[in-house]
Amino acid sequence: QVQLVESGGGLVQAGGSLRLSCAASGRTVTSYSMGWFRQAPGKEREFVAGISYNGGSTDYADSVKGRFTISRDNAKNTVYLQMNRLKPEDTAVYYCGAELGRHGPLGVVASSREYDYWGQGTQVTVSS
Predict the structure, then answer these.
(1) What is the dihedral of CA 96, 27, 110, 85, to 10 degrees?
(2) What pLDDT is recorded for position 93?
(3) What average pLDDT does range 120-126 have in this prediction?
(4) 73-109 burial, b if ≥16 CB within 10 A, otherwise e?
(5) Dist. CA 85–CA 1, nearest whole Å
(6) Which residues does 124 contact at the CB level (< 8 Å), separation at least 6?
(7) Which is nearest to 48 in space by CA: 97, 8, 88?
(8) How many Å apart are CA 125 and CA 87, to the nearest integer?
(9) Other C-beta atoms within 10 Å of 12: how many?
(10) Which neighbouring-strand residues pair with 1?
(11) CA 1 to CA 61: how far, in whole Å?
(12) Quick one: average pLDDT of 17-33?
């Protein structure tokens, strides 16, 4: 079993920055691809960013490209999401997910259905 705990959310003004962290425990996630998703009220959970288990590949939703950066520190069993130039439409609960690396060391998974473990989420609110 893998437990994921997100942190770093909060209230920020438009144009500001936040850095989310996702700490894994229970087992190492070095062979798991990782992803960040978000869900706004009344909307479905959507892919934000993903990173392969060797860290060599990343992917982003078009809405966050150029503003968000996903990274991982396998020594710390932690994944990060640096969010810059935040917009009110980025307001959502952000979830971290872990996928069993089925797509190989460079695989990045954008479908939430393929993820095996989820954290409880952290709220991000961007005021205008």
Answers:
(1) 40
(2) 98
(3) 98
(4) ebeebbbbbebeebeeebbbbbbbbbbbbeeeeebbb
(5) 35
(6) 9, 10, 12, 18, 20, 38, 83, 86, 90, 91, 92, 93, 94
(7) 97
(8) 9
(9) 17
(10) none
(11) 28
(12) 95
Reduced 3-state DSSP string for the chain: CCEEEEECCEEEECCCCEEEEEEEECCCCCCCEEEEEEECCCCCCEEEEEECCCCCCEEECCCCCCCEEEEEECCCCEEEEEECCCCHHHCEEEEEEEECCCCCCCCCCCCHHHCCEECCCEEEEEEC
Q: Are strands 3-7 and 58-60 parallel, antiparallel or unpaired?
A: unpaired
CA 74 centroid distance within chain: 15
What's at 38, amino acid-wise? R
State what percent of residues in the chain have pLDDT above 70.
100
Distance, CA of 127 to CA of 15 (rounded, Å)? 9
- Contact between 51 and 58 under an 8 Å Cβ cutoff? The reply is yes
Nearest-angstrom CA–CA distance, 16 and 72: 22
